[in-house]
Specification:
This protein is mainly α and about 475 residues long. The chain contains 25 helices and two strands. The chain is elongated and about 110 Å long.
Length: about 475
């Protein structure tokens, strides 16, 4: 075991300095193989230091590409790499371990082989460590929240379930004085309970290792300064615990500035974050793809900004798999996509097969044309967000008892947005009792005061008309004067 540790220590010295005593112009690759009996056999291969230097540059290039794909800017990615020298050495060491047979025969790796070896490894680190990945790279081999160095960052013997269990144990373990960890006590003081914290940790184990002073507290105080009430913070953190792992200066604030430049109303940040805290954790590339799609659909920059402010969730929808097919479906109904997106962007998060088509078929089966349905959805985008069984069908059945032609729903599809028991039935009962007729939008859309006023006006007109009719009838019945 000592031999093995010495070999890896020597390897690390070589990668950091490019030389060892007595071999100033060479780099040594040491391959230690464990025997069945626990013994080690070592084979030494001398490789030019220039090759090791070239591999380090290749590793940096791969890491830079990977970080930018995670949404980091060129400047932030470069700064992270500059702080991650030991991790870069670790990547080169991994190359030599994965391709040891190639080095033993003296064959150099190609750029493609280097990428194929490192990118899956980096992806595995991202999956395991999530938002603390940057801290891991910069502090390697001592990741955040851990006291002991790690030889292998992602041990194969740790299954996802065991990682969850270890993380949950960490948040619930008590110290000598019987107290929970400081960051857990802090979260409880915010209004979270231990079971809630455990639930978050099961979904996102990295949450257990966030530093209170360097990560959690600065983010919480920043959110409070934005105007988010303390009572809302448990909800925000439950929705997106990754927020606590993001650097304020290098990620969170630059991302907010980027979104403000796209039109997000900075005065509404508290509401935006409460609605969809994940928005601040998406890469710029993903946001730009969504913005490009909205622009392609004919929306102005101002409208796009309003959509991102009112319904930031739209950024979570995949453009090619979700937004574009949904746009094509609505276009087939004759809907103006830009208008629908502006009025009801949440409609684009619905399933075409499970939500949209059943509603369309429902109205087609009841005699409405494609043009009628297109008009209805254009006038009231939320129509397709309602449940057929719990909303549309009961209201349709009651509509059939009302004295209105079917086209009245084309003129006023907002009918389906009102409560059947609290608004539609009571108001229609008053109209029926009065014996008058009002347009469907007058019955439902007016305030109670204006509805009462309109109803009384209609009743008065009806009485005046009847009185006038009665007078004319009497005059017709009077005998003529000779």
């Amino acid at each position: 075991m000592l031999c093995y540790c010495y070999c890896h220590l020597l390897l690390l010295v070589v990668f950091c300095t490019g030389s060892i005593p007595g071999v100033s112009y060479k780099a040594i690759i040491i391959n230690a193989d464990s025997g069945i009996d626990g013994s080690f056999s070592s084979r030494v291969r001398v490789v030019p230091a220039t090759l090791v230097a070239a591999e380090k540059e290749e590793a940096k290039a791969v890491l830079n590409l990977f970080l930018k794909k995670q949404g980091l800017s060129n400047a932030v990615a470069a700064r992270t790499i500059n702080k991650s020298d030991i991790f870069i050495d670790h990547l080169v060491s991994r190359l030599h371990s994965v391709h040891k047979s190639r080095y033993l025969v003296g064959r150099e790796l190609t750029t493609l082989e280097i990428r194929d070896a490192l990118i899956p490894y980096l992806e595995s680190l991202r999956e395991e460590h999530g938002s603390i990945l940057i801290d891991l790279l910069e502090n390697f081999p001592n990741p955040p929240g851990k006291e002991k160095p790690i030889g292998h960052v992602s041990p194969s013997y740790l299954t996802p379930e065991s990682k969850k269990q270890r993380a949950v144990s960490r948040v619930s373990e008590t110290g000598p004085a019987g107290q929970l960890p400081p960051h857990i006590l802090y979260l409880i003081d915010l209004g979270m309970d231990l079971e809630q914290i455990k639930g978050i940790t099961r979904k996102f184990p990295a949450f257990a290792y966030y530093s209170l002073e360097r990560k959690i507290k600065p983010v919480v105080e920043f959110l409070l300064d934005l105007g988010i009430p303390k009572s809302d913070l448990p909800t925000v953190l439950t929705k997106r615990p990754q927020l606590c792992g993001i650097s304020l200066s290098e990620n969170l604030i630059p991302t907010m500035t980027f979104l403000e430049n796209l039109g997000v109303d900075k005065r509404q940040w508290a509401k935006v974050i409460y609605r969809f805290p994940a928005l601040l954790t998406y890469s710029r590339q993903k946001v730009e793809v969504t913005v490009d799609f909205l622009s392609e659909m004919g929306l102005s920059a101002e409208s796009i900004g309003k959509i991102l402010t009112r319904y930031p969730n739209i950024v979570s929808y995949n453009v090619d798999d979700k937004l574009r097919p949904t746009a094509e479906y609505f276009r087939s109904l004759g809907v103006d996509i830009a208008i629908l997106l502006h009025r009801c962007p949440q409609t684009f998060g619905l399933s075409i097969e499970a939500n949209l088509k059943p509603v369309t078929e429902f109205f087609l089966e009841r005699g409405y044309s494609i043009e009628d349905i297109g008009t209805m959805i254009s006038r009231y985008g939320a129509l397709y967000t309602f449940s057929l069984a719990e909303n549309v069908i009961p209201k349709w059945e009651f509509f059939l008892t009302m004295d209105y032609p079917k086209q009245e729903l084309v003129k006023f599809p907002q009918y389906f947005g009102y409560s059947l028991e609290a608004r539609i039935k009571p108001r229609y009962a008053l109209v029926k009792e009065a014996g008058v007729k009002l347009l469907l939008n007058q019955v439902l859309s007016l305030s109670y005061h204006n509805f009462d006023k309109a109803l009384k006006t209609k009743i008065k007109k009806m009485h005046s008309y009847r009185a006038s009719s009665d007078t004319n009838s009497c005059q017709d019945l009077q005998p003529g004067i000779e």
